[in-house]
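A note from the maintainers: we've had questions about how concatenated examples are separated. There is no special marker in the raw files; a new sequence line simply starts the next protein. For clarity in this README we add a label.
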Amino acid sequence: MQKVGAVNLTDKYFDEEYFDGGKGYHCYNDDPRFQVYADYIVKTYSPKSVLDFGCAKGYLVKALRDRGVEAYGYDVSKWAIAQADDNIKKFLTSSKLRFVDLIVSIDTLEHIPVDQVPRIIQDIKTKSKRQYLVVGTVNTPNWEHDASHVTIKKLSYWQNILPGADWVESV
């Protein structure tokens, strides 16, 4: 990542203060939405393998594994990965993507500087058969609360750069 405006978007930016101290979230915890997402993913896609791109502390990876899915996670934040459940950490990485049936990304892509979006999208496309991508857009309420939301666009922007993916607007 790179410096965007006053925000230096490296793994060091996405630290304890970001996830639990109000810089991004006030308390990033294992809330019921991860169970809801996991149920939806299993029911809709029936994937054998999933990669959660932007997995943070690995809550969705855990929920998917609890449902028998071979799930993995990728996140730029080494701090967030270190906070994951000990049984899940071994499935999380900050180094490289692996090929899977489905890449899921929930509220992550808007954190990527616009000049890096094409490369990241290409990586996502080449490392998966399908993609389920939830993204913050200009219509997402209160998106400006987080200074690392640096690529806030209309949903059509995202749909045009990866037309075959299942895109959903974050609410």
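[label: protein 2]
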Amino acid sequence: MVRVGEVNPAEARVVDSSRYPPNLSEAGFVQPCPRRIRAMRDGAIVLDTLSASYVWEVPHYPAYYVPVEDVDPAVVALESTQAFETGPFAGLVHVAWDAVDSWFEEDEEVYGGHPRSPYARVDAIRSSRHIRVESGGVVLAESAAPVSGKAHRDIAWSYSHPNVAVAAIAGLVAFYDERVDTFLDGVPVTRPRTKFHGEDES
């Protein structure tokens, strides 16, 4: 069994790294995954979590590490599943990609044998989770609900003709999280602090 941060000698080979851009993360790097992650096996959902972590076992792409309580016990018991009882990943499990039939980020299936690196691409992903956006207590947008009201300046943006890779976002509106109050499934989302804060923000 190869553990996090270790190199499998059988897979090691000499690579001319000068031909490739540097990796944006190294083996052992960990980041929270902001998306709902699910997996299906034999037609049933066997993994469903809002608390997954991206763990880079190798520098090139991450793996999902998931709280054990969010995984079907039958999958936890598989020989290919890594369960961690101690250390930095205590309480988490790593389910082998091919131990299940399909993986999903939000409502879209993920292909390719591993999660997509959030540092290598930007994805536009459909989700059925409920979202509400407010400013000063006024609802500006809400999933599947018509909203009307006064105009607000510099809090949202959209593309009428986006790049082909993200064509699905055409006609959709994105809000600056720094300037509005967002609620995901009824839970407030902390406003990030970035260069996009308005001048009147403290």
